[in-house]
Specification:
Aminopeptidase, single chain, 25% helix, 22% strand, alpha+beta, disordered N terminus, globular, eight-stranded mixed sheet
Length: 213
Amino acid sequence: MEQINYNNLRMGAALHGKAFGSHMPVLRSGAGDFRVIPKQAGMRARMEIRILSQPDLPGISRIQGECYSQDILESLDSFSAKLCAAPEFCFMAVHGEQAVGYAVALPRIFGDIPDLNSVEHSVSSNADSLCIHDLAVSPSARRVGIASQLLKAVLDAARERGYKRIFLVAIQGASSYWQRHGFEALQVDESLKRGLSAYGKGATYMVRTDEGV
């Protein structure tokens, strides 16, 4: 059974999301030197999910580049703004000293679509939902449960803070992944369609409601 080290993790943290790249939920994803991590029990045993911090952002940018197409990449300044707005909903997965995944979420008003690469983010007093803006796992560290652990951290955080409704924009064919985790695609009006167009062809607005919160 996968053992997760929750050091520095405030129980009940959350997530938002441009739900991730190829073969997984997608928002967006970055590159650079990256060693291949063996997908075996040893990796799971050394996995840690913790709160994201500003010094982690270069690693997050690298993973972003590995996962998403160039036209939807976001800057370090954009990530920093989201982290400053809602740090309790942002997480990173670490294997040893290596960042292998992340989740970035913010409280939003249901029906909003966050602007890609914006450097202005704040949490409205009218926020009634949690938006998972981005959840990505490095391609060389997939299929060992990292995405599920990041999603659990986000959902726990949302539950702790009373957010029953979680929404996201699924991209790069990731809607089937999110459906397996209880999200449903919504019919959108013309205004939302225009907002979704920035996320690429096939971007899907999805929502999950946890009535038991």
